């Protein structure tokens, strides 16, 4: 069976404080909060989704804010760096914006591209790169205009315990194409416009530890439920242990851990985030799956309230 993913569907990370997280990703980075729900396996913890205006696959970063979380250590078996793509010509805007918020930035380069590397409040490693591909954002918030706004994921850097095997899986299982190698990085590309460039550090990395400031998993796109079932068979055919298909309300999901220790998910593009909220009202209230509705009062009492707000630096 020959299968190819379009690229990243979403990336999910651990953080501590919901308000600080929303302030950073909505207030500073200008993303839209498209859904607030809970971790279905631990409903005392939020699951927050941010992305473009519709929450399109390839734009969605999600968070489990766990106030008592230990500090994680980024390392092998994780997504090491999450890459956001902005329009061509917008990098200087972002360099100045991050400086205005006193966020330390390091300029880096690989594969003839310039990156702004920085971290969020919990230490999650992020970077911004200019890319021509992909539609422009239609969302503007705070001091981020549409023509400078983050379009979605440019890709990610994978830190593997077994980089050769991770690289092989990207090609033979997920259908990515190897397009080059430069220094410590091998680059792979999918056919999609967003979340399509994956770099693998070719040096084995010391194992990371989960916790705040680390990525829990990276999810890859399946176009529909029928293809999703084919993906499950395809992964099993390559000798990997994979979960049954799980209903995540806004997509269906299956999970497996690849040989380099990284938790992979394959998620369906549909049904999307407007299935239980009007597109104009996404993310405005806590949405619970039907099986948790009778516990809404109990669940809400354990969650720390937060709001999407314009930050002082943009109000001046």
Describe this structure in words.
This is Ring-cleaving dioxygenase. There is one protein chain. The chain has 316 residues and is α+β, with helices and mostly antiparallel strands. The protein is built from six helices and 16 strands. The chain has helices at residues 18-28, 91-100, 163-172, 225-237, 296-302, 312-315; strands at residues 8-15, 32-39, 42-51, 60-65, 78-86, 106-110, 113-119, 125-130, 152-159, 177-182, 185-189, 197-201, 215-222, 246-247, 251-257, 263-271. Strand 11 (185-189) and strand 12 (197-201) form a beta hairpin. The N and C termini lie far apart (57 Å). The model has no long low-confidence stretch (mean pLDDT 97).
Number of domains: 1
How would you characterize the largest beta sheet? 8 strands, mixed
Sequence stretches where pLDDT stays below 50 over 5 or more residues: none
On the 0 to 100 scale, the average pLDDT is 97
| CATH superfamily placement | 2,3-Dihydroxybiphenyl 1,2-Dioxygenase, domain 1
Rounded radius of gyration (Å): 18 Å
Calculate the terminal CA-CA distance, rounded to whole Å. 57 Å
Helix content: 10-25%
Order of helices and strands: EHEEEEHEEEEHEEEEHEEEHH
Number of separate helices: 6
By DSSP, the count of extended strands is: 16
What is the class in the CATH system?
A: Alpha Beta
Q: Which class do the helix and strand fractions yield?
A: alpha+beta
Question: Can you give me a brief rundown of this structure?
Answer:
The protein is of the alpha+beta class. The protein has one domain (8-315): 2,3-Dihydroxybiphenyl 1,2-Dioxygenase, domain 1 (Roll).
């Amino acid at each position: 069976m020959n299968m190819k993913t379009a690229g990243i569907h979403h990336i999910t990370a651990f953080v501590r404080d919901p308000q600080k997280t929303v302030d950073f990703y909505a207030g500073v980075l200008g993303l839209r909060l498209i859904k607030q729900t809970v971790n279905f396996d631990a409903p005392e913890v939020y699951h927050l989704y941010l992305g473009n205006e519709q929450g399109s696959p390839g734009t969605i970063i999600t968070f489990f804010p766990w106030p008592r979380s230990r500090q994680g250590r980024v390392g092998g078996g994780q997504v090491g760096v999450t890459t956001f793509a902005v329009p061509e010509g917008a990098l200087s805007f972002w360099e100045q914006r991050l400086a205005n918020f006193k966020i330390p930035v390091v300029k880096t380069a690989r594969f003839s591209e310039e990156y702004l590397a920085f971290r969020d409040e919990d230490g999650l490693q992020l970077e911004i790169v200019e890319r021509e591909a992909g539609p422009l954002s239609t969302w503007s918030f705070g001091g981020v205009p549409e023509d400078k706004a983050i379009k979605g994921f440019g890709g990610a850097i994978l830190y593997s315990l077994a980089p050769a095997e991770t690289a092989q899986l990207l090609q033979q299982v997920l259908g990515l194409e190897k397009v080059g190698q430069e220094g410590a990085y091998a680059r792979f590309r999918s056919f999609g416009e967003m979340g399509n460039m994956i770099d693998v550090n070719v040096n084995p990395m010391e194992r990371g530890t989960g916790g705040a400031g680390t990525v829990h998993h990276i999810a890859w796109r399946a176009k529909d439920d029928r293809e999703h079932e084919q993906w499950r068979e395809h992964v099993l055919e390559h000798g990997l242990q994979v979960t049954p298909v799980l209903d995540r309300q806004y997509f269906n999901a299956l999970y497996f851990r690849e040989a380099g220790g990284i938790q992979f998910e394959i998620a369906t593009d549909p049904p999307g985030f407007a299935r239980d909220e009007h597109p104009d009202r996404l993310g405005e209230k806590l949405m619970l799956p039907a099986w948790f509705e009778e516990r809404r009062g109990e669940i809400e009492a354990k969650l720390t309230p937060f709001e999407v707000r314009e930050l002082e630096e943009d109000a001046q």
